[in-house]
Amino acid sequence: VQLQASGGGLVQAGGSLRLSCAASGRTFSSYSMGWFRQAPGKEREFVAAISWSGGRTNYADSVKGRFTISRDNAKNTVYLQMNSLKPEDTAVYYCAASLRGMGVVRTQYDSWGQGTQVTVSS
After folding, report:
1. Closest alpha carbon to 74 in 110, 26, 8
2. Gap between the Cα atoms of 15 and 63, Å rounded
3. Which of 50, 63, 92, 104 sits between 20 and 30 A of 111, alpha carbons compared?
4. Can you say how many angstroms the Cα of residue 60 is from the centroid of all Cα atoms in its chain?
5. How far apart are CA 104 and CA 9, in angstroms?
6. 3-class secondary structure for the chain?
């Protein structure tokens, strides 16, 4: 599956953004999907994941209660709604697809999008 992330931008602290990740191919609904992020000089870290059906989700503690992951299998798209953004949320955000479940580890994901920059100003 090929992935294309979009929706990043510059926002003030406390603001909101919604990221989208469009997938190509007819097997999108077979994949669990995840969002990761990478800040300058830091490792890529897990943000959120959603099961193939959308019935289960998982979040990093740092975003729990502020971010919501969702998916629309009819549109081959996964979303990340980000509210109450903080400067420490600044990073390049990547979507990823996995046939091995809702992993929190990068190596569990088989396909990656190109990333979209999110910058939160204080």
Report:
1. 26
2. 14
3. 63
4. 11
5. 25
6. CCEEEECCEEEECCCCEEEEEEECCCCHHHCEEEEEEECCCCCCEEEEEECCCCCCEEECCCCCCCEEEEEECCCCEEEEEECCCCHHHCEEEEEEEECCCCCCCHHHCCEECCCEEEEEEC
Residue 14, token pair as written in the block: 């406390």
Beta partners for residue 50, in sequence order: 33, 57
Q: How far apart are the first and last CA of the chain?
A: 37
Q: Are 96 and 113 in contact (CB under 8 A)?
A: yes
Counted residue by residue, the chain has a size of: 122
For residues 67 and 106, give the distance between their C-alpha atoms in angstroms, rounded to a whole number: 19
